[in-house]
Amino acid sequence: DIINHFNTPVGSRLMMPTFGTHIFKYLFDPFDDYTKNTIISDAVRVVKTDPRVDLVSIDAFQQEQSLIITMDLNFKPESVTQNMFVTFSLKDAGSF
């Protein structure tokens, strides 16, 4: 469900105007502290929509032609922590 949320631009889902992420808007902006913090804030918002997980840590960085968000998520009720990567390709961003 979280991956689906990250793969959906906000406003593109019928009857669910707040579902998705704003990150697509920032893919071609300079990756400075402001942009990084805005992307991380939106990623935190997305993760908080799923009550089955708690966010342990999060970071965002650019690598070649991609924006990568890495998160450690604690899955309830088992209390299992897993690492999750979400990649936004700058090559594919034109379709959004």
> What topology, given as strand order, has the largest sheet?
1-2-3
Question: What string gives the helices and strands in order?
Answer: HHEEE
> What is the straight-line distance between the termini?
20 Å
| Number of distinct helices | 2
Shape: globular
Mean pLDDT: 92
Sheet with the most strands? Answer: 3 strands, antiparallel
Radius of gyration of CA atoms, rounded to a whole number: 13 Å
User: Which secondary-structure class do the elements indicate?
Assistant: alpha+beta
Helix content: 10-25%
Residue fraction in strands = 25-35%
The count of DSSP E runs of length 2 or more, i.e. the number of strands, is 3
The low-confidence parts are none
Can you give a write-up of this model?
By secondary structure, this protein is an alpha+beta fold. It is 22% helix and 32% strand. It has two helices and three strands. It has helices at residues 2-6, 33-48; strands at 53-63, 66-75, 80-89. It has a three-stranded antiparallel beta sheet, covered by helices on one side. The longest helix is centred in the middle third of the chain and has 16 residues, at 33-48. The radius of gyration is 13 Å and the shape is globular.
